[in-house]
Amino acid sequence: MDYSDVSTIAAWITEQGLKGASESELMTGFCAACRKAGLRIDRGLALMDTLHPVHEGRAFRWDSEELVETEFEYGPSGTGEAAASWQRSSFYHLWSGNEREVRRRIGFGDPIDFSQLDKIVEAGHTDYIAMMHRFAEAGTIGEMDCFFSNFSTKHPEGFSDHDLAILRKLVPVLGLAIKCIALGRIARTIAEVYLGEDAARQVMEGKISRGKSERISAALWFSDLLNYTKISDRVPPEEIIPLLNDYSEVAISAIHEAGGNVLKLIGDGVLAIFKGEATQETCRAALKAEALLREKLRKLNDERKADDRPTTDVYIGLHIGDVFYGNIGSQDRLDFTVIGPAVNEVSRIASMCRSVDLNLLISSDFAAAIPENQRAALACVGRYALRGVQRAQELYTLDSARLNA
After folding, report:
1. What is the pLDDT of residues 234-244, one digit of tens each?
2. CA quadruple 87, 90, 91, 94: dihedral positive or negative?
3. 9-34 confidence digits (pLDDT tens)
4. 3-state class of 295 per DSSP?
5. Helix 23-36 and helix 161-195: axis angle, to 10°?
6. Is the distance from CB of 12 to CB of 174 less than 8 angstroms?
7. Selection from 179, 343, 165 nearest residue 271 by Cα
8. 143 and which of 38, 49, 306, 368 could share a cystine (Cβ 3.0–4.6 Å)?
9. Which domains does the chain have, with CATH numbers?
């Protein structure tokens, strides 16, 4: 492998990074190109921490002979067996010290003192090098503070000095390209976590100007926790956040599984929409989310009761109407949400649940829009004047809807 190959491979990495190739495609293409050009690599691994509510980071693998999982996510490495494994690794050795690389000529008597080295030896590899490229403070996001990689070979002589010189030149280019792709992934993750999937998609597509909105017809969901204020007054402070997290999880997961989009978490309340061209389908999806929530809620309450922890119920208002969906706020602080009389109305409908001792109330507009075969399950609760809403309207519920504290 000569230095013209280095330029060719570096140019390829740059081009693929600019095109938005995935991290695993970059890793696979890089290793294959290096091997084709004469570099003695048989296995490669790259990983980098990320910013994600569940995963600590992502790793990317390549093997010249075996079929391997080219991409996987790993969880927190701060406790338990994961922490012990991390602390035995060559990457931890680099991260906790001052070295930028560590080499083990495992086929020539060097110690097998890092995790996974024994398996690499068993696979017939003779030489191993691990590298770390730290980011400066300005280039660090959360735990994403460096790029790790390792490479091994089965060549009888191991890596040559030339091989290592080539890797030292090319791996930083690979790390930069993978970091660029990872930053885009992080941006999408943050947007989805804080805005919701649909709103995040629109923001990432460029809809970030104040006043940019569209008028849509949607099924609206507003839910809240029963007696949350009383519960929070009587339980220890350290119980409040776990309680909110548990009940938010069942509500949000039910909405997402049914195809809805959560737009706001307002204390213990959830505002969501179900979009679609067919009104019947959006209403059907909202009712499916309500049924899923009840299943999840029963299981959650059983688990919390078994642990002698406080339990509650979720009350829900469902409505349908036209809303404006888009950016509202100042030039430098925007919220991507829905506004319109229908949004105010659905929250008022939900708040009526406590007055009528029901965990579900449905507007007359929503009731009229649902598929005919589902209307038979509805029961009229009565006609009510809603605070802040000009017109009184009939409200409906399902026969099974009763609040349970």
Report:
1. 888 889 999 99
2. positive
3. 999 999 999 999 999 999 999 999 99
4. helix
5. 170
6. no
7. 343
8. 49
9. 3-194 (3.30.450.40), 198-398 (3.30.70.1230)
